[in-house]
Amino acid sequence: MSQPVLCSLPLVIALASFGHAQTEASYTPPPDSAGAVSRVPFAAGKRVGQRFQKRFLECDTQDRCDGKPLKAGCTKDQNRNTALLDLPNNVLFYEAKMAVDADGSPLSKNNPGKTDQADTSFRYAMAGRPSVDSDKVPYIAVPSGGFTQELGVRLGDIAAVIYRDKIVYALVADIGPACKIGEGSIQLHEQIGHPVCRSRNAQGECTKILDSGIEKSVLYIVFRGSGARILKEITPANVNDRVATEGAKLMLQLTGESAAR
């Protein structure tokens, strides 16, 4: 049997205010990204995943997850999750920070325990089941703790990630902590306009990263079930092209522009 969660008064007030705002206020994207997502049907969105949003807020305000203290909490690196919406066309949307996820890169494989994990949760369906290289492939991580099951996100799905006026298509390739949302690969940060690799070796591999992500206002559009379009064919050699090609098609469908092009 689960134990009751004891919250301090400030957190109770914050959660109550948060839930009230979420039911009454429609979503408005950050001004710097308004043009890039002007045709996304946010007005048709339905709020989902309130229990997950409460987790993210609890981590942001108290460094706790489901009432349990965290060694690596969020107060110094907040989730800043301001929206979690179910959009038309089987799309999940959220806004949050974007931390750096180096899983699967040579940097992580060569520094076990010092950076992230050596491997990603997603593996290519080929001999050796290789991980996705954070240094070469734009990908995102989504939370564990029931997030994928309840909200219908799957490893291998395609996402559109927007920061300011840039849109990058990415693979859902990793699973992160339950109370943290908003992580992107080294390559995703580089493409979105936030360089994080500080040095590279003769082989072009990143050997040192800036351990500082984008603190807020990153928009994530996850096309649920889209992995079926690419999973049987993607390899490390073609993954970026396939994700970008199919992601652009899915974005056009979401915005209603596909018929006009």
Q: Would you spell out the secondary-structure blueprint of this structure?
A:
Blueprint (H helix, E strand, L loop, with lengths): L8 H16 L21 E2 L2 H13 L1 E2 L2 E2 L13 E5 L3 E11 L4 H4 L29 E5 L3 H5 L6 E6 L2 E11 L6 E3 H7 L4 E4 L5 E4 L4 E10 L15 H17 L6
Parallel strand pairs: 5-9, 6-8
Antiparallel strand pairs: 1-4, 2-3, 4-5, 5-12, 6-9, 7-8, 7-12, 10-11
Helix pairs in contact: 1-2
Task: Offer a few descriptive terms.
single chain, 261 residues, alpha+beta, Barwin-like endoglucanases, six-stranded mixed β-barrel, 25% strand, globular, disordered N terminus
Distance between the termini: 55 Å
CATH topology: Barwin-like endoglucanases
What is the general shape?
Answer: globular
Uncertain segments of ≥5 residues (pLDDT<50)?
1-25
User: Strand sequence of the main sheet, in spatial order?
Assistant: 5-9-6-8-7-12
Strand content: 15-25%
What's the mean pLDDT score? 89
Structural class: alpha+beta
What's the helix-strand series? HEHEEEEHEHEEEHEEEH
Number of helices: 6
Q: How big is the Rg?
A: 18 Å
* CATH class group: Mainly Beta
In this structure, how is the largest beta sheet organized?
6 strands, mixed, barrel
CATH homologous superfamily (4th level) name: RlpA-like domain
Helix content: 10-25%
Q: What is the CATH architecture descriptor?
A: Beta Barrel
For the secondary structure, the number of strands is 12
The count of domains is 1
